[in-house]
Specification:
By secondary structure, this protein is an alpha/beta fold. 45% of the residues lie in helices and 13% in strands. It has helices at 39-53, 63-72, 89-99, 114-122, 135-163, 176-188, 205-215, 234-242, 259-262, 278-290, 316-321, 327-333, 348-360, 373-381, 387-401, 414-418, 435-457, 462-469, 473-482; strands at 31-35, 56-60, 77-81, 104-109, 127-130, 167-168, 171-172, 195-198, 224-228, 243-244, 256-257, 267-271, 292-293, 302-303, 307-312, 336-339, 370-371, 406-407. Strands 2-1-3-4-5 form a five-stranded parallel sheet, with helices on both faces. It has a five-stranded parallel sheet with strand order 9-12-15-8-16. Keywords: ATP-binding, Nucleotide-binding, Phosphoprotein, Transcription, Transcription regulation.
């Protein structure tokens, strides 16, 4: 954190000029600033926080000095009196809000100033207390305020990650696996090669397709045109892709262009391409090979310059072997393959995405909800079979049901709370079976879950997993084999 070398020059206004330093993303120290015109009160509060909470405490004798100090270094908490010379407490709060300083404010007031304290809270103060303050109550209030500040700082840091180095063409990730995907997109963007995106449902295949299109902007001036191949019947899919002439079939009252024409000089995204029926696969193959086609009921040949990006969550190789999907079409689509890892293989993205979704679903005019640590732990331990889409739905629900802008574990969907990190339901008591038998199963279930969490934390490193668990490396290896755990799913490529 850079500090201002010299105090700013005095301004004619009671409020000094803004000398706020650049934010330091690595700042973790919680520092308190006590603003009080009575020296005895300043000294007693400073010593109380140093001894009881082991915190770094600075003091200022009025609001003007406090603003100068706030411009020189960061503080987590400001405890200020309301009635002071030069710049009073109300002016201090107003200027802190105007500068958008990331600091929590507690105000102190005499017995007759409760109405002023309430006004200060409406201006953004966290809480207030009357003088003389009870030391125990003051310590509890400060601890509570610092915990709230820490949560806000964590969410702010995550949002900075979202807006900064972890964003690629509106795709959010800090996973090395996804960064490899981003690098591949950068390589293929200038080309015309057909791309096949493979991944589980909800992994964001369309987002990646849009990222490819945006990265190709300097080379392809046309639009991004998506179509879900699984959502349309055979006859309508053909018309949607290739268009039709007037009178070519019942209901064709006018000529209509197809998606291929609309995507000329741009990108056509064929979502769920594994659901294209056999009759359409032949026609699709012809267009990919010749880059031309005719509308339904027409004879005019239309030439196109379109990049095709296809996506599927189905195993096309197996479908080819089973005779369900044409082999020649598969190879025509699979020129460049992009494999999207599921969310469970990139757990570092959960907190980043959760912070993004709380911002997306925040109430109008209100700051995004804060995710309590116990709720975040549930998010981090869940396996997310529905991937990013399921996470987004969970956060949307939590934001709607959260009270006072705080997401608790109870605000999350019930299936997240009831299911452990391996995706298995908690064991139920069965009186028809013996207690030792059920205890043995419960122990094994816990042991497997423990190993999976340890392997996730260590990225599949057996030695580090052994150190965490307190077991030998050989014991960990034997247990991994016993529970048939694939270490590769925890490793980064």
């Amino acid at each position: 954190m850079r500090a201002t070398e010299q105090p700013p020059a005095q301004s004619p206004s009671p409020v000094p000029p803004d000398t706020t330093p650049d934010p330091d993303p690595d700042f973790v120290l919680q520092r308190i600033l006590v603003v009080e015109d009575l020296e005895d009160t300043r000294t007693s509060m400073r010593e109380l926080f140093r001894v009881a909470l082991n915190l770094e405490v600075d003091t200022a004798e009025d609001g003007q000095q406090a603003l100068t100090m706030l411009g020189q270094k960061p503080y987590s908490l400001v405890i200020t009196d309301l009635r002071m010379p030069k710049v009073n407490g109300m002016q201090l709060i107003e200027e802190i809000q105007n500068r958008k300083l990331p600091v929590t404010i507690i105000v102190t007031t005499g017995n007759g100033g409760v109405s002023d304290a309430v006004k200060a809270m409406r201006m953004g103060a966290y809480d207030f207390l009357t003088k003389p303050a009870d030391p125990e109550h003051l310590i509890v209030l400060v601890q509570k305020a610092l915990r709230a500040r820490a949560l806000q700082d964590e969410v702010t840091a995550l949002r900075e990650q979202v807006r900064g180095r972890h964003t690629f063409r509106n795709v959010l990730s800090k996973s090395p696996k996804m960064h490899d995907v981003f690098e591949l997109i950068g390589h293929v963007a200038p080309t015309q090669s057909t791309i096949l995106i493979v991944g589980e449902t909800g992994t964001g295949k369309e987002q990646i397709a849009r990222a490819v299109h945006e990265a190709s902007g300097a080379h392809r001036s046309g639009p991004f045109v998506p179509i879900n191949c699984a959502a349309l019947p055979d006859t309508l899919l053909e018309s949607e892709l290739f268009g039709h002439e007037k009178g070519s079939f019942t209901g064709a009252a006018t000529q209509r262009k197809g998606r291929f024409e609309y995507a000329n000089h741009g990108t056509l995204f064929l979502d769920e391409v594994g659901d294209v029926p056999a009759s359409m696969q032949v026609k699709l193959l012809r267009v990919l090979q010749e880059r031309k086609f005719e509308r339904i009921g027409g004879s005019e040949t239309i030439e196109i310059d379109v990049r095709v990006i296809a996506a599927t969550n189905r195993p096309l190789e197996k479908m080819v072997k089973d005779g369900i999907f044409r082999e020649d079409l598969y190879y025509r689509l699979n020129v460049i393959k992009i494999i999207l890892p599921p969310l469970r293989e990139r757990p570092e993205d959960i907190s980043v995405l959760a912070a993004h979704f709380t911002q997306k679903y925040s109430r109008p005019g209100q700051p995004p909800a804060l995710i309590q640590p116990d709720a975040m732990q549930i998010l981090l331990e869940y396996d997310w079979p529905g991937n990013v889409r399921q996470l987004e739905n969970a956060i949307e629900r939590a934001c709607v049901t959260a009270k006072n802008g705080v997401i608790l574990a109870s605000n999350l969907p019930a299936d997240l709370v009831k299911t452990n990190s391996s995706g298995k339901s908690q064991m139920q008591v069965d009186l028809a079976r013996s207690l030792p038998e059920q205890l043995s199963e419960l122990t094994a279930s816990f042991e497997e879950r423990y190993l999976r969490r340890a392997l996730k934390k260590t990225r599949g490193h057996v030695g580090k997993c052994a150190r965490i668990s307190g077991l030998s490396r050989r014991s960990i290896t034997d247990k991994i084999a016993h529970y048939q755990i694939d270490k590769k799913e925890f490793k980064q490529d």
